[in-house]
Amino acid sequence: MSEAILVTADDPRLSRLKFKKFLNSTERQAFEFDPGPGEPQKLDVLTPWGAQLTAKKGDFIVNDVDKPEDRWVVDREVFEQSYIFIRPGFCLKKAVVELVPLLDFTDGDPDRLVRIETLEGELTVRAGDFYLARGVKGEIWPYPIERIGSSLVPVEQALQAKQEK
Predict the structure, then answer these.
(1) What is the rounded CA–CA span in Å between residue 68 and residue 126?
(2) Prediction pTM value
(3) What whole-number distance in Å separates Cα of residue 139 and Cα of residue 131?
(4) What percent of the chain has pLDDT over 70?
(5) Whether the Cβ atoms of residue 45 and residue 33 lie closer than 8 Å to each other
(6) Which residues make Cβ contacts (< 8 Å) with residue 129, sequence separation at least 6?
(7) Are 104 and 148 in contact, with CB atoms under 8 Å apart?
(8) Minimal CA–CA distance to 126: which of 153, 105, 140, 147?
């Protein structure tokens, strides 16, 4: 098997990809990781897609409301720019997310492994199972294909629905 392709947020190859803009409409739960003195200052979180991310003090742990066991880590600065609390402990993502199939990065090879350097750690995923997401600070992360239709709406579609109201 080939060695995994490494992708970083400043990778010049990203400029050739055609990212599309999406809005997220899923209500989520979130809490700030705020360990006290004498407690471990980092927390390893196993994501729903089997990767391990590391939260540091001030980062947020986020999950879909209907799946509290499926958690991931969001860098504090990114969380503050991307999410809005709608009531204590519950938030919506307010920022646009850009997505492109990882297959576009691997020239269509679904089995090619891709190592993605995120703000919370490096993840290795199979290209055929993920999109590459880019956020408000240019940060990147893998986004599971099966979550696209259930939580994300293309910006054009969201704008059209808003005009029709």
Answers:
(1) 24
(2) 0.80
(3) 14
(4) 94
(5) no
(6) 49, 110, 144, 145
(7) no
(8) 105
The enclosing H or E element of 62 equals strand 60-64
Say if residues 131 and 145 touch (Cβ distance below 8 Å).
yes
Instruction: Identify the domain containing residue 89 by its residue range.
Output: 5-164
C-alpha dihedral sign at 150, 26, 104, 50: negative
Q: Report yes or no: 73 and 59 within 8 Å, Cβ to Cβ.
A: yes
Domain total of the chain: 1
Convert the pLDDT of each residue in 84-136 to its tens digit: 999 999 999 999 999 999 999 899 999 999 999 999 989 999 999 999 999 99
- Asked if 94 and 83 touch (Cβ cutoff 8 Å), the reply is yes
Structure tokens at 12: 């010049």
Of 153, 160, 161, 162, nearest to 21 (Cα)?
153
- b or e along 105-142 (b: 16 or more beta carbons within 10 Å of the residue's beta carbon)? bbeebeebebebbbbbbebebbbeebbbbbbbeebbbb
Instruction: List, in order, residues 6 or more apart from 160 with CB less than 8 Å away.
Output: none
C-alpha dihedral, 18 to 137 to 55 to 95, nearest 10°: -80
